[in-house]
Specification:
Elements (H helix, E strand, L loop, with lengths): L3 E5 L3 H13 L3 E5 L2 H10 L4 E5 L7 H11 L6 E5 L4 H10 L3 E4 L4 H17 L4 E4 L2 E4 L5 E3 L2 E2 L5 H13 L4 E2 H9 L8 H13 L6 E4 L3 E4 L4
Parallel strand pairs: 1-2, 1-3, 3-4, 4-5
Antiparallel strand pairs: 6-7, 7-8, 8-9, 10-12, 11-12
Helix pairs in contact: 2-3, 3-4, 6-8
Pfam family, one: Trans_reg_C
InterPro entries: CheY-like_superfamily, OmpR/PhoB-type_DNA-bd, Sig_transdc_resp-reg_C-effctor, Sig_transdc_resp-reg_receiver, WalR-like, WH-like_DNA-bd_sf
Keywords: DNA-binding, Phosphoprotein, Transcription, Transcription regulation, Two-component regulatory system
C-alpha cells in the first residue's frame, strides 16, 4: 500500500492503538497530539489521509480542518474521529470540509475500510502526471521526460526515490523518510540509499543537478530558476 496517514489524537493510549492498527495494515503513520503542530505537518507534507480528532489542544479539529482547506494546495481527505454525536456537531465538521465522520467507540475494521476508501478517493482526484520544471513524471505509466525527451526506464527504487522527491518539492526530504518510503520498516543493513541515489543521478544524465544533497538534512529536488 505505502500510503501515508497523519493521526491527530491527543489521547495517547487511543492514538497508540490506532497507530498499531494502521501500521499492521501497511500504512505509513505519522502522529500529532496538538492541533497547531498537526496543521503544520499536514501543510508541509500532505498525507494521503488525515485522521482527525475534534477535541485537541492548541487548535480544535473543526478549525484545523477549516484552515487546512483554506491553505493546502491540494485536497487532503479528512476523516473526523469523535465522540460528539449530535447532528449539529456533524454539520460543523462537514461544513469545515471533512470528507467522512466516525464516532467513538469504533470497530478497527471499519476505521481501516474508511481510510482505504478515502485514500482511493484522493487518488482519483489527483492527476497522474506530475510536472516539476523540466521534469515530467507519469505516475500511471512510469514514463519520465526531461526537457521533453523520454528517458530510459529507471531502476524501480531509483524511480521511487525520484518520485518521492518530486512529490515533496520544494521541501527537503530526510534520509530516514526516504528509507521509510523505499523499504517501510525493513531497511537494508548496507547504505543502499546511496547506491540508488547514484543510479538515479547516472540515469538523469545532464539532469542530475536537479537532485541536491542538503548536508546533515537529506535530499531535495532543486529546479532551475
Amino acid at each position: 500500500m505505502n500510503h501515508r496517514i497523519l493521526v491527530v489524537e491527543d489521547h495517547a493510549p487511543l492514538r497508540a492503538q490506532i497507530v498499531t492498527l494502521l501500521q499492521g495494515a501497511g500504512w505509513r503513520v505519522e502522529e500529532a497530539s496538538d492541533g497547531r503542530l498537526a496543521l503544520q505537518l499536514a501543510l508541509e507534507q500532505p498525507p494521503d489521509v488525515l485522521l482527525l480528532d475534534l477535541g485537541l489542544p492548541g487548535l480544535d479539529g473543526v478549525e484545523l480542518c477549516r484552515r487546512l482547506r483554506e491553505q493546502a494546495d491540494r485536497h487532503i481527505p479528512v476523516l473526523m474521529l469523535t465522540a460528539r454525536d449530535a447532528l449539529d456537531d456533524k454539520r460543523q465538521g462537514f461544513g469545515a470540509g471533512a470528507d467522512d465522520y466516525l464516532l467513538k467507540p469504533f470497530a478497527g475494521e471499519e476505521l481501516l475500510w474508511r481510510c482505504q476508501a478515502l485514500s482511493r478517493r484522493g487518488e482519483l482526484g489527483r492527476s497522474p502526471v506530475l510536472e516539476r520544471g523540466p521534469l515530467r513524471i507519469d505516475r500511471r505509466s512510469g514514463e519520465l521526460r526531461l526537457e521533453g525527451q523520454v528517458l530510459p526506464a529507471l531502476p524501480r527504487q531509483a524511480y521511487r526515490l525520484l518520485l518521492a522527491l518530486a512529490e515533496a518539492w520544494p521541501r527537503t526530504v530526510s534520509r530516514s523518510e526516504l528509507q521509510q518510503t523505499l523499504w517501510a520498516d525493513e531497511p537494508p543493513e548496507s547504505d543502499a540509499l546511496r547506491t540508488h541515489l547514484y543510479n538515479l543521478r547516472q540515469s538523469l544524465g545532464p539532469g542530475q543537478s536537479l537532485i541536491k544533497t542538503v548536508h546533515g538534512v537529506g535530499l531535495r529536488l532543486e529546479l532551475p530558476q
